[in-house]
Amino acid sequence: MELRFAYSPCPNDTFTFFGIASNRVRVDGHSISVRHHDIESLNRRAMAGEYEITKMSFYAWLLLGGRYRLLRAGNALGYGCGPILVSRRPVSKADLPGLTIAFPGEHTTAHLLFRLYCPEAANRKFTTYDRIFGEILDGNVDCGVVIHESRFLYEQHGLYKVCDLGQWWEETTGSPIPLGAIAVRSDVPAELDMELDGVIRRSLMLARSDPALARPYIREMACEMDDEVTAKHIAMFVNEFTMDIGEQGMQAVDRLKAMAKVAGIGP
Asked: Would you identify the CATH topology of the domain 84-173?
C-alpha cells in the first residue's frame, strides 16, 4: 500500500521527516511517498481528504471533526514558538479593529489565535506565509501574523512587534501552543498508527544523531537559507512534543478546542 505523506518545506518538518523522505526508515509492507505544500495548502488538501498522512494546522484538524486521526509523533507544539503579529508602525491592540491584517491562511492556528486575542478585528486578508512581509511592506495591509522562519526575521525588515500570540496563549492558559498536527486519514487502517508513530520517531532520531546528513534536504526545501535562522527554527519547533504529544499536549489541544467553541469559531 502506498501512503502519501504531505508536510511543509519548513526546517522543522524537513528535519523531522528526513529519514522518511530519504527512505532510510520505512513501514514494513508499505511505501511512503512525500509531498511538500505550504501550511494553508495542506489544510485545504486535508479538507478534501487528499493525502493518507498529512501535516495540518491544529485548527484545521479540529474543524475536520474526526476525518483524520491524530498521531502521537511529529506534531508541532511548544512554548515560546507561537505566531507573532507585526506591523509597519507601532500600533496598540485598540488600533487593530480599524486595520487590515494579513494571515498565512484561513484555517491556520495563527488565524484562530488572533481571533481569540482580538475578535473585534474583522478586516482580514489571507495569503501564504512567505508573502506576509511583502504584503506589509508594500502597504497592502497594516499588520500581518508571521510564522515559521519569519518570526525570526521581522526586525530585519524594519517591522514592529504588536503581540506575540504564543506568549499571549501561554499567559492565558499556561499550556504549550498547539500549532501543527500530523494526522492519518480515517480510512487508513488504525493498526498502522503505532507503526507510523515509530517511523516518525526513528526518522527524528536519525536527524538528531547526524544533523549534517539531513542538512542538504533542509536547505533545498527552506525559504530562508541562512543556517543560523534554520538552526534556531529547528531548535524551537522540534522538541519533546515532536517525539510524543503526551498528556500535556493533548490537554492543550482540548483547551484550544474549548476556547474556539466558546468564541463561536470552532467545532
From this structure: D-Maltodextrin-Binding Protein; domain 2 (3.40.190)
Is 148 an active-site residue? Answer: yes
Helices (H), the chain: 11-16, 18-21, 39-47, 58-64, 109-117, 132-137, 165-173, 193-209, 211-221, 227-237, 240-243, 246-262
**Mean pLDDT, to the nearest integer, of 48-71?**
97
Candidates 111, 148, 157, 233; catalytic one:
148
Let me know the angle formed at the C-alpha of 72 by 66 and 73, rounded to the nearest 5 degrees.
Answer: 125
CATH number for the domain formed by residue range(s) 2-78+177-262: 3.40.190.10
| Helix (DSSP H) and strand (DSSP E) numbers for the chain | 12, 11
- Domain ranges (residues) in the chain: 2-78+177-262, 84-173
Question: Structure pTM?
Answer: 0.94
Report the chain's mean pLDDT, rounded to a whole number. 94
